[in-house]
Write a structure and sequence with these properties.
Helix content: 40-55%
Mean pLDDT: 94
Structural class: alpha/beta
Strand order of the largest sheet: 3-2-1-4-5
Number of domains: 2
CATH superfamily of the largest domain: ATPase, nucleotide binding domain
CATH topology of the largest domain: Nucleotidyltransferase, domain 5
CATH architecture of the largest domain: 2-Layer Sandwich
Order of helices and strands: EEEHEHEHEEEHHHHHEHEH
Radius of gyration: 20 Å
Number of helices: 10
Shape: globular
Strand content: 15-25%
CATH class of the largest domain: Alpha Beta
């Protein structure tokens, strides 16, 4: 069966559309939103307005680049959740309207499942079962992936996500939004052993980053009392030390889960998987533990419609379609719609 999926992603502050034909990605267009930089974080109302402005030209560009006409689309896939509800409503409403107009199936895709499925956009592909560490601004999870649409969260954060830990630490240092990529950049010139931050003791495979954030806050407060310019004078080393601790927290838990479950196909996904230190450390942990590691291309790390198309493809093959009553959900567990 030949399948052509048009996919729409609008969960946060990227408006994206992709076209996929039989697992081959033909286009993946992403429009970002610079309007949030001045506020130091994503403003939900501004995000939804920007999606309204971007979605028509983004979809048109994706179809043109793919060389696909609307009449040849098999189904429309969209992000059902989790995400910002106003942003999700823009994408889901457009998808529902286009599905109705073209009289073709509508497919709702879980955003977090889609991050995992980004690993199947081209080779190499992990073998089932595998573990995927999904890390983003809103989520930090260890996912046991049993099949394309059968996933189980075996560990997750109690509080802040890893991406939040990066961004909030950057804010404490006076760095611009988004702070995670800036910490990554500055850390490359720093000494990760210079400053020591605590690793929280959390049972099982779960995470906690709020205590780390608090320790960084107090550390900077105390040092600035001694030297007002401490942060600026030691910025690279501070960034490297913070980054090293966040990554070690993530990989220590992943290593434990892989050992306990005796799984050696290990992947990372989500926006934080673009972090260069995390990517390099995963490779090193892989060598030490005899893992086969899978790291997504940079363009599939952050929010994008290609991963939504991948989820839509597998759901199409299983006939998992939605009707016009489907609504987006700000919170949606990864096990939903299996």
């Amino acid at each position: 069966m030949s399948v052509t999926i048009l996919a729409i992603e609008s969960s946060c502050d990227e408006t994206s559309c992709a076209v996929m034909h039989d697992e081959i990605l033909l286009s993946n267009i992403i429009a970002g939103q610079d309007v949030h930089q001045q506020y130091g974080g994503v403003i939900p109302e501004l995000a939804s307005r920007a999606h309204q402005q971007n979605i028509v030209p983004v979809v048109a560009t994706a179809l043109k680049q793919a060389g696909v006409e609307r009449k040849n689309i098999s189904a429309i896939a969209f992000t059902e959740g989790p995400g910002l509800i106003g942003a999700l409503l823009v994408g889901s409403s457009f998808a529902k309207g286009l599905s109705l107009a073209l009289n073709i199936p509508l497919i709702a895709v879980n955003h977090m499942q889609a991050h995992v499925l980004a690993h199947f956009i081209g080779e190499p592909r992990p073998q089932f079962p595998f573990l995927c560490l999904t890390v983003s601004g809103g989520h930090t999870q260890i996912v046991l992936v049993k099949d394309f649409l059968q996933m189980e969260v075996i560990g997750e954060t109690y509080d802040d996500a890893a991406g939040e830990a990066f961004d909030k630490s950057a804010k404490l240092l006076g760095l611009p939004y988004p702070g995670g990529p800036m910490i990554d950049k500055l850390a490359r010139e720093g000494n990760a052993e210079r400053f020591k931050f605590p690793e929280p003791k959390v049972d099982g495979y779960d995470f906690s980053f709020s205590g780390l954030k608090t320790s960084i806050l107090y550390f900077l407060r105390d040092e600035k009392r001694k030297n007002e310019n401490f942060a600026n004078e030691n910025l690279n080393d501070i960034c490297a030390s913070i980054q090293s601790r966040i990554v070690s927290i993530l990989l220590h838990k992943l290593e434990r889960a892989a050992s306990d479950l005796k799984i050696n196909h290990i992947a990372i996904a989500g926006g934080v998987s673009a972090n260069s230190f995390l990517r390099n450390q995963l490779v090193e942990y892989g060598k030490k533990n005899n893992w086969k590691t899978f790291i997504p291309k940079f363009e599939y790390c952050t929010d994008n419609a290609a991963m939504i198309a991948m989820g839509g493809h597998y759901k199409f093959l299983r006939g998992e379609f939605e009707n016009q009553s489907v609504i987006p959900k700000a919170r949606l567990p990864i096990t939903a719609h299996l």
